[in-house]
Design a protein that fits this description.
mainly alpha, about 0% strand
Length: about 70
């Protein structure tokens, strides 16, 4: 897993498609869904950690852009 697209594809495997139109809100919802899948023991520790890392990095980029 290397991109946000990969995270979206992972969620899609579990029947979850997230698109609100607000990038930051989309990322936050994806993070909540990933956490829920992990707590339900549907994801490995490695997959969970990588997905959360990617989502948080992208959230930081979006927040920086909004701050400009």
């Amino acid at each position: 897993m290397k991109t946000i697209y990969d995270v979206q594809q992972l969620l899609k495997k579990f029947g979850t498609i997230i698109y609100i139109g607000d990038r930051l809100a989309d990322l936050q919802l994806m993070e909540a869904e990933i956490k829920e899948l992990y707590q339900s023991q549907c994801l490995s520790v490695e997959t969970y950690q990588m997905a959360i890392l990617l989502l948080r990095q992208e959230m930081s980029r979006v927040k920086e852009k909004e701050g400009e």
